[in-house]
Design brief:
alpha/beta; five-stranded parallel beta sheet; 5 strands
Length: 137
Amino acid sequence: MSTRVLVPMDDSDMSEHALEHALEIYPDAEITVLHVVGEPSGMMGKATGLALADDLEEAAEEHATVIFDRAREIAADREITTDVAWGSPSKVIVNRAREFDAVVIGSHGGSLADRLFVGNVAQKVFRHSPTPVTVVR
């Protein structure tokens, strides 16, 4: 049976380190990189910009493309699967974790304002995930 690993990524260095770690620790696993476009609020810069776009799904896909291209560069010789979702990042990741054997997540990402107002996604995932979680710094 093949191991399936979920690696949530945003555009932070920490999420890139998480992917590098997952590739090293799980050399034979099926790796899925998930980018969650956060729900818009008065305190979320990028998500608010996406929410104002004419075609929300298209805007989210375009934003995710940059992250997925970077993930493919990091994975270089490995095949990875990519997926984009919309919603509260911690809730989406925890819900998706049910389909995987492990989650490898960066310790933090986004701007300081995102961490202060939105909360620590890694901490919420660690506390609520139904599967083992590795938090990478």
